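G.,

No rush on this.
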Amino acid sequence: MVSGVFGVTARAGELRERILALVAEYCGEAWAPAAFVPGQTPVPVSGKVFDSAEMRLLVDSALDFWLTTGRFAAQFEREFARWFGVRDCVLANSGSSANLLAVSALTSPKLGDRRLRPGDEVITTAAGFPTTLNPILQNGLVPVFVDVTVPTYNVDAAQFEAALSPRTRAVFLAHTLGNPFDLDAVTAFVRRHDLWLIEDCCDAVGSTYRGRKAGTFGDLATTSFYPAHHITMGEGGSVLTGTPLLRTLVESFRDWGRDCWCDPGKDNTCAKRFDWQLGDLPRGYDHKYTYSHIGYNLKMTDMQAAVGVAQLGKLDGFIQARRLNFDALRAGLRDLEEFFVLPEATPGSQPSWFGFPMAVRPEAPFSRNDATRYLEECKIATRLLFGGNLVRQPAYLDAPKRAIGSLPNTDFVMNQVFWIGVYPGIVPAAIDYMLDSLHRLVAKTVRAGV
């Protein structure tokens, strides 16, 4: 029997197997792939890729009716940590929540003098997604923005020493669009100054640097399982760490701030549930209702995790497909470098690309808006590089911050860069159509300018 539920009848088990068999049959009928038709079939920048395996486990979990974190979540945490090569994985309800948990964990009094306190500074970039920045501000910390390099779109580590101050306590950076940042330079800097390092791997699951997975260099790393990402659970994320204390702190902030570390439905894992004396509580106060942090409830449901378990078995293939799609676009656009700045991997890295970033050169006969408008008319979806320059976004105009210089490359990202998809659902015929459309864009504008 597939289920982990105890006490069900043999008849119930038989019905479950019939239901799951029908689910697989339904998936094959309802989600059969359609042929790609250039100009008619949309080419998204991202999307979920799944088959009957995901649907079967999703329904299997639903039939358990264990609606919070459960057996599938435990299985995924164990297998994902093993795949990454780290000690612990803690699931959360989104990658954004994972980022919040990673930063919040470093504010815990249990870290002693190394804890982050309000007013402490965290070095980061402004060319990225808001939820790498938001947890810094939400915890009363001050972001210090350094510029990025083009065309890696990652942090310019040469600016770190200029960014350093007596209040600098951490570095929190994303591997942009799956391209690892310079981990040699970043890890040397944090070691030299005894700083925390958080790697945002939400776009970079499977990326490697000098043969080692991105996400295994810092004190903490985060991932996302939103449908756009390398594997999906619909919503979801995780925090990865090799440090047992940090795992405990992340779980505490995720689970209401409680001091207890029992799994849902479990009691007395510590074997001293009624023997603790913490804070000003009376000795013996129930450990399940003792809170050591001001936390949240950011747990994942077991149904989401069930989808992730199936997706994890496909992850290596997904990464390979992303790399092949990226390589095909890079090779096919080489003759257009007069008009576009094409992306480059960080030296020593092998990215697990999230997207294909392109910058329209300022001297090109068309603008970025011209390019994205044309591609969208061709049903090829485009995206900007997230917030462009977050310093200029309305949400952050009055936020506490420091910036090293005027961030000219970040403004270049804001004004010139967009990206197109490489996700595994993009078939070779769609790649050919994307290349043909970009060549037609250039030919059309060059002819118009003659």
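When you get to it, here's the other one too:
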Amino acid sequence: MADTQKERVLNLLKAKGILRLKDFLAEEIDQETLARLVRDGQVVRPSRGLYQLADAPIDASQALAEAAALVPKGVICLISALQFHQITLQMPSAVWMAIERTAWKPKIGYPSIRFVRFSGWAMTEGVQRHSIQSRHVPITDPARTIVDCFRYRNKIGIDVAMEGLREGIRQRKCTSDQLWHYAKKARVWTIMRPYVETEVAHVS
């Protein structure tokens, strides 16, 4: 039985990349099997309640997958989303994640997560799901991310928002119409408009 459970754990991690303890319990795999695999060095725990293969490939998006596993209803946003879409040179020291305005904010040691509060349409519109290490990670799309950066400019810096806008337009990862759509909903179009018009003129 133990060998069978061990094989199931390894096969699940090969297929999914990162799993939570409750994912294994749902498969009727006991905690002792996981503990034994961790002691043997075949499985590691990058964070409390998360498991992955010790030889799993590590890439720059791993922290996003780990954060999404720990906070399934969260959305990767702001600088972390800019970085994922490759429209910033910023290297955030924490994963930026949006949660519902009334949601409980979890306490997580690793990866480091900086939470912001979104509500209503902001939690769903312009949110794409990207496959990272076999996990579907919700991330705001480029245009939506740029608008959010202007909306939270006092928190992340106007220079970061402007860099995202400049690179988003230059790399054609968003259009002025998309920016206008989200900016009107977020009520920041008045602020963004002169910057958008300047950047569009530069690439025209």
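The chain is about 50% helix and 15% strand. The chain has a mean pLDDT of 90.

Enjoy the weekend,
O.
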